[in-house]
């Protein structure tokens, strides 16, 4: 399945047990299609919001025990019943996607974290449900990892989001480091920009590391999946640093050699 638009979701990984693959794919299809409604194409905001509201009604029908006629939601309903999944995280995802339609700036880090709570954390929480590994510590650490992955995605995609009119960097951080929106649009990585990105990279890394005890509590395949995700995120942060925080001229990505490093570090964990 294509995963370009939903980088934080471990879709049909080779580490995923076969019995869980249909469930993960059903959840992913829901999240990916809803994300595309919010982000892709040239529909007007009212049209996007109306379609996302329809998604919300389908989820509500699933909560009431119904099986919607729409194949996407019919399959999702079967997964919800089979694995006794909560639907609340899916509503949270829809809430974040609706916010993407109407919100293009975040005043402070707290506001951005609230967005990540609904745009990224539900993914980890649903995976914990599928693996029957839900407890307070696991949820806390999963949230830290998922939010960090979302932030890392934002930092590597600054130049991609700008033409869409979106800035995920907290405005209070821009102001504190003396970086204006006009400077962002012009593109060059100034000393002030590098200082800002250094701050954001270090914050995302600290958040990621705070959640890593989870990889030692989750046995088997999910633990290895998580190790690779954690190390992949940390490697992207290193790529941003290696580029001296200039994400305008080249989006930091992982090459084959990077994945060898990621795999080795995952083993060492």
Task: Summarize the topology.
Layout: H1 21-39, H2 45-63, H3 71-83, H4 88-102, H5 109-119, H6 121-130, H7 136-156, H8 158-161, H9 171-176, H10 181-186, H11 191-211, H12 213-217, H13 220-242, H14 256-268
Characterise the protein shown here.
By secondary structure, this protein is mainly α. It is built from 14 helices and no strands. The longest helix is centred in the last third of the chain and has 23 residues. The N terminus is likely disordered.
N-to-C CA distance: 29 Å
Order of helices and strands: HHHHHHHHHHHHHH
Strand content bin: under 5%
Which stretches are low in confidence, meaning pLDDT under 50 for 5 or more residues running? 1-12
Q: How would you characterize the largest beta sheet?
A: none
Q: Count of DSSP helices?
A: 14
Mean pLDDT: 91
> What overall geometry do the principal axes of the alpha carbons give?
globular
DSSP E strands, number = 0
Structure, briefly:
This protein is mostly helical and 269 residues long. The protein has 14 helices and no strands.
List keywords for this structure.
269 residues
